[in-house]
Design brief:
80% of the residues lie in helices and 0% in strands. By secondary structure, it is mainly α. The chain starts with a helix and ends with a helix.
């Protein structure tokens, strides 16, 4: 019995060690990039968004709004107070929706970290998150013309923690907070990946998420809801799943529903949306994730 346990531990350590060395650099550089943007670029990004208010681009503003949401390094609980300040300045709600939606799905550190999944997955992640933000803005514009979509008055403003007068120390403190916030989930993700590689047959996984396209996309979108805790923790899992036959469409669905339905994000969204609009958000996320997944699998199949 002891020999069996030792042998299994050696196997698991082998898988853990390989994946850790493969993606550790991406994780550290991703956290560093996020801190750089937060310390040196966050205010410029948000100021640029406010300046858009004086332009005459109308509904097309959802396009730069979605891009700026991706560029913003804030988490949901940091994004909503910023979005509330945008609303106070008179920003259109469709622009705010585009900014918030893409910001929920992606940020600079997670985008860089996703390079560990390969160039195709990296490009697809950026494109679908951008399009999801644009689509969210368009939906708010079309379906909520006569009544406000957000209720920012119920959300408490957060204190800015990047206040050290020394920019280098401010960067180090921000970087330390990023590592602290994601480090445990990074390790858990690698452990789960090692367990999947050791105990889940590659053929079974490929059949579920690779060959059976439609059902695989649905399953990926579904497991993204309870399984997603932190972007840094899911990259090792996605890397392992892709190697074991997960289709790119299923991966895309997971990358949408995961961060969009992360439990902490849902708590913040419930506060500012209310019950009816929160339900609308759920329907939008699931519909978009499934549509993207099926479309991407179709493109890869005929390509």
């Amino acid at each position: 019995m002891v020999e069996i346990i030792q042998r299994e531990f050696i196997y698991l350590w082998y898988y853990f060690d390989i994946q850790f060395r493969q993606i550790f650099g991406y994780w550290v550089l991703g956290m560093a990039l996020g801190s750089l943007v937060s310390v040196f670029g966050k205010e410029k990004i948000h100021t640029l968004f406010v300046k858009m208010r004086n332009t005459k681009i109308g509904a097309f503003g959802v396009v730069p709004a979605s891009l700026l949401g991706i560029a913003s390094p804030l988490c949901m609980y940091g994004t909503i107070p910023i979005a509330a300040s945008f609303a106070e300045k008179g920003m259109a709600e469709d622009w705010i929706a585009a900014f918030c939606m893409s910001s929920v799905l992606l940020n600079p550190q997670l985008l860089f970290y996703s390079a560990a999944l390969g160039p195709s997955a990296l490009v697809i992640r950026f494109v679908i998150c951008f399009l999801c933000g644009v689509a969210a803005g368009i939906c708010v514009k079309l379906f909520f013309k006569r009544k406000p979509f957000f209720r920012f008055t119920k959300f408490e403003h957060m204190t800015n923690r990047d206040t050290d007068p020394n920019l280098f120390l401010r960067f180090l403190k921000n970087f330390g907070r990023n590592i602290k916030a994601t480090g445990l989930y990074f390790i858990i993700g690698i452990v789960l990946s090692a367990l999947f590689q050791r105990y889940v047959p590659q053929e079974a996984f490929g059949t579920l998420f690779g060959n059976n396209k439609g059902f695989g996309v649905l399953m990926a979108a579904t497991i993204g809801v309870p399984l997603y805790v932190c972007g840094g923790g899911t990259i090792p899992l996605l890397q392992s799943w892709l190697l074991n036959g997960m289709s790119m469409g299923s991966t895309a669905s997971f990358m949408i529903t995961g961060p969009a339905t992360k439990i902490t994000n849902l708590g913040a969204l419930k506060i500012v949306l209310g019950v009816k609009h929160f339900a609308f958000y759920w329907v939008f996320v699931i519909t978009f994730a499934l549509s993207c997944g099926l479309a991407i699998d179709y493109i890869f199949r005929i390509g």
